[in-house]
Design brief:
Largest interface: A-B, 36 and 40 residues
Helix content of chain B: 40-55%
Shape of chain A: globular
Largest sheet of chain B: 8 strands, mixed
Distance between the termini of chain B: 27 Å
Strand order of the largest sheet of chain A: 2-1-3-4-6-5
Strand order of the largest sheet of chain B: 6-5-4-1-3-2-15-7
Strand content of chain A: 5-15%
Number of helices of chain B: 21
Strand content of chain B: 15-25%
Largest sheet of chain A: 6 strands, parallel
Structural class of chain A: alpha/beta
Order of helices and strands of chain A: HEEHEHHEHEHEH
Number of helices of chain A: 7
Oligomer: heterodimer
Helix content of chain A: 25-40%
Structural class of chain B: alpha/beta
Number of strands of chain A: 6
Number of strands of chain B: 22
Distance between the termini of chain A: 44 Å
Radius of gyration of chain B: 26 Å
Chain lengths: 238, 594
């Protein structure tokens, strides 16, 4: 993103030189995708609310134009619900990490999936707690030993399965390195009427114990799968 | 001295229909032109099986005081020989009072009967359950026999016209035959009382004389409602333009949320029941950020479990918020169905850190209607969280309010310019971190931080200068000042009237704007020889706040009257406590009840 290009999504936002993310952080690519998608989707910054969770990823609210909101830990989806319900004309986006969303925010996550507000949620899933320096996260796999033990090895949360089980109407998973694919999914989310849950593998190059988990690592191990379930309007998948 | 009739209607919770009788009785009297206040419904934190009693005080002049600890008329609907209402309240039955009870399961013991008679108490046993079941084939209507008996013995609504109209309104949707049957059932209650009174007209004379005298003073000229604090606060909120409410069911705030759910949709508002208080208050913050006035009803456990963190957010991010804390006995789960005033310290703290917020306290059901409207205006004007303290007595209690009062007290403090996203203008980065004023970006710069903190607290100074109301002092400033806040206000006022009639120089200060506290308000009112603080908590929370206020004279010394057994203050016990403390200025406190 060139700072000198006239871009409505750079107005009122910090220039990339001031972004406080480690070199190689997956979130840089996420921002590329957001900007592209917001442009292609012709969103109006005046009517776009970008809610950041607590954690490295939440800083993104200051790195893009439009309105930004930053509340308490785990609350992003609930603030989003209130905003969307109060003014249906707003385009409401949440960008939060796997800790904010699936640990302390698990209640918000379940409640919001049940409610299905018109909110688009992108979870920066790096399978670790970055900002607090390396504790285990609910999506961390049981395979690795994290730098800092925070609990015994509980079973990981499977975000997609959980979302569907509690009523989410749009569930997707992407890897932030594939910016084009991310943009497609964001645009599809914009077209969807209701809650969109998008789990986004966005590597943490500093604290994830498997340092080799960078964009390339994910690319080697993933495939694009397109599955669509048409559910009845009472919507529980059995 | 206020002429007052205390009626207690009791039975087993849910089973015996005491609630319907109390509500109907209250409405009948309100429509007839009297003033009725009902204490909190003395219910248990359970659904079925526990005893429940409704205490109503009837006057021909407006009053939200419950009077002395005394009962004039007792109506026991429990037919099982459990007779819990009698057990709980008979000791308070006054000389010349009346006892009506359902004797289907057996009569009261001979000793009890003779003890009542020695106090000239009229005893009216009625086989209400048997009659309703066998004669009317409508056992569920047995409580209405009690209603008829009550009105009959007290001489209220002689022809049954008002009751008849109410029954018509209540049961019309169930068909004419149901309406007619209920009317007959009520009439039967009246007839049974007439029979019982034959040959007993000298007993129960005091209660009946009081009721006749009050009945004679009725004024049916204006339309009145018999309504709960929760109901009237919901009305006030909607009137003030509140268009969003969120909460999690909790006693005694659930009904406030339910009333909002009843009324908000018709004004295009929205009500959300959260999966917890946390979810609810966060949704409310989102709604407020997007530009609508929101209300969050809760009680102590809800405030501490879910909201404290968000209060801090609202203060730091400068998001308007109105939280209603209907206090109940704590700590922890405490006594969910008992009133108390023990959340003051925690709501004054508000959150961790230095919180710029405002705490208000309703002093009566009537006042809560006005106060909640003020709260919305203050929230928008100062862009901060406002905590409105009520308590279970106000929330679940009921009072008579005239419709003209409700119309005349629609506040018009003006509408503030609301900064909401999506309507043009500046785009903002709203955040709970410390931030630059203009951009909203995160900062830890010492100069900016200090400037922002000072700026947030300057709003509080502005509030103190422009909008903070001084305490209400109906008797002016006297050498002995009794201070109170919340639901005890009417009772304490009556106690002081009584003392003043006896010649004592006591005054009253009722505080409604509890935090921040204006040092001048405190100094002017309480720079006197004796300050007695009357409140329903164990440690004297408001007294502690008052003592912390800076004062040129070197601080205020307070004496306390404390009650925390779950029951409200009574006029006689407050008057006694004040007398004790007046005579012994070195005495630290009087603990009532227990």
């Amino acid at each position: 993103m060139a700072d000198n290009k006239l871009n409505i999504w750079r107005a009122g936002a910090l220039p990339i030189s001031e972004w406080q993310w480690c070199p190689g952080c997956g979130d840089f690519a996420v921002m590329k995708a957001f900007e592209k998608a917001f442009e292609e989707g012709r969103l109006d910054p005046q009517k776009t609310i970008f809610i950041g969770g607590i954690g490295c990823s939440g800083q993104a609210r200051n790195y893009i134009g439009g309105h930004g909101f930053h509340g308490t830990h785990g609350g992003a989806l609930s603030y989003a619900t209130g905003i969307a319900v109060a003014n249906p004309e707003l385009s409401v986006w949440v960008f939060a990490g796997d800790g904010d969303t699936f640990a302390i925010g698990i209640e918000s996550f379940i409640a919001t999936c049940r409610r299905n507000p018109n909110v688009k949620v992108v979870i920066a899933d790096n399978e670790v707690y970055g900002l607090t320096k390396g504790q285990n996260s609910p999506t961390g796999s049981r395979v690795f030993v994290p730098e800092v033990w925070s609990e015994e090895e509980p079973v990981s949360i499977q975000p997609l399965q959980l979302a569907i089980d509690v009523g989410a109407t749009f569930v997707a998973q992407i890897s932030s390195g594939d910016v084009r694919h991310c943009v497609e999914i964001y645009l599809a989310a914009m077209r969807h009427k209701g809650l969109a849950i998008i789990n986004d593998f966005s590597p943490c190059v500093t604290y994830h114990p498997e340092k080799k988990r960078v964009h390339a690592w994910y690319k080697e191990r993933s495939e694009k799968v397109e599955k669509r379930f048409i559910l009845s309007s009472s919507a529980t998948y059995r | 001295m206020t002429e007052r009739l205390r009626v207690v209607i009791g039975g087993m919770q849910l089973r015996d229909g005491a609630s319907t009788v109390a509500q109907t009785f209250g409405k009948v009297l309100a429509r007839a032109g009297l003033w009725v206040v009902q204490m909190e419904p003395n219910f248990a934190s359970t659904i079925y099986g526990a005893p429940q009693s409704f205490i109503l005080a009837v006057t021909s002049e407006p009053s939200e005081s419950w009077g002395d600890r005394a009962v004039d008329v007792l109506l026991e609907l429990d037919f099982d020989r459990v007779h819990s209402t009698i057990d709980r309240h008979a000791a308070d039955l006054l000389h010349g009072g009346v006892l009506i009870y359902d004797s289907s399961g057996g009569e009261i013991s001979a000793e009890d009967a003779s003890s009542f008679r020695s106090r000239e108490i009229l005893i009216v046993p009625i086989k209400a359950r048997d009659i309703a079941r066998d004669e009317f084939k409508l056992e569920i209507a047995r409580n209405m026999i009690g209603l008829g008996a009550l009105c009959g013995v007290l001489g209220f609504d002689h022809e049954g016209a008002i009751v008849g109209k109410l029954l018509q309104e209540t049961f019309a949707r169930k068909g004419e035959s149901v309406v007619r049957k209920n009317k007959e059932v009520v009439e039967r209650g009246r007839t049974l009382v007439k029979e019982a009174l034959r040959g007993q007209c000298t007993v129960g004379a005091d209660a009946r004389q009081t009721s006749r005298s009050i009945w004679a003073g009725r004024n049916a000229a204006e339309e009145r409602l018999f309504i709960s604090g929760n109901g009237v606060m919901a009305m006030g909120a909607v009137t003030a333009g509140c268009r969003g409410a969120a909460g999690y069911p909790i006693t005694p705030a659930s009904a406030l949320l339910e009333h909002m759910a009843e009324w908000l949709p018709s004004v295009h508002g929205v009500v959300i029941q959260g999966m917890s208080e946390k979810e609810a208050v966060r949704i409310a913050i989102g709604m407020s950020y997007a530009g609508i006035r929101v209300c969050i009803p809760t009680s102590g456990p809800g405030f501490t479990s879910g909201m404290i963190e968000e209060i801090g957010l609202a203060a730091m991010a400068e998001i308007p918020l109105v939280v209603v804390d209907n206090q109940r006995a704590g700590p922890s789960t405490g006594m969910p169905t008992k009133s108390e005033q023990s959340d003051l310290r925690i709501v004054v703290a508000g959150s961790h850190g230095d919180v710029s917020h405002i705490v208000l306290a309703a002093r009566s059901i009537e006042h809560s209607y006005c106060l909640i409207q003020e709260a919305f205006c203050l929230a928008d004007r100062y862009r901060c969280p406002i905590i409105v303290l009520a308590d279970l007595n106000i929330a679940e209690g009921m009072a008579t309010l005239s419709v003209s009062f409700l119309r005349d007290h629609r506040m018009n403090m003006g509408w503030e310019q609301v900064h909401a996203p999506g309507f043009g203008g500046r785009m903002t980065k709203t955040t709970g971190t410390e931030h630059h004023l203009e951009t909203g970006f995160v900062t830890t710069d010492p100069a900016l931080r200090k400037k922002m903190m000072d700026r947030r607290f300057q709003k509080m100074h502005d509030y103190l200068a422009k909008d903070a109301q001084p305490p209400r002092t109906p008797f002016g400033t006297e050498p002995i000042m009794v201070v109170t806040w919340g639901s005890p206000s009417a009772v304490v006022e009556e106690a002081i009237s009584r003392l003043r009639d006896e010649g004592h120089k006591a005054g009253l200060a009722v505080f409604t704007n509890l935090w921040p506290l204006h040092p001048a308000h405190v100094a002017e009112t309480l720079g006197v020889s004796q300050v007695i603080v009357c409140e329903q908590n164990a440690v004297g929370q408001f007294a502690q706040l008052l003592r912390g206020v800076e004062n040129e004279k070197g601080g205020i010394r307070t004496q306390s009257i404390l009650k925390y057994d779950g029951l409200p203050f009574w006029v006689d016990e407050v008057a006694d406590a004040i007398r004790q403390l007046m005579d012994a200025p070195q005495m630290k406190e009087v603990r009532c009840g227990g």
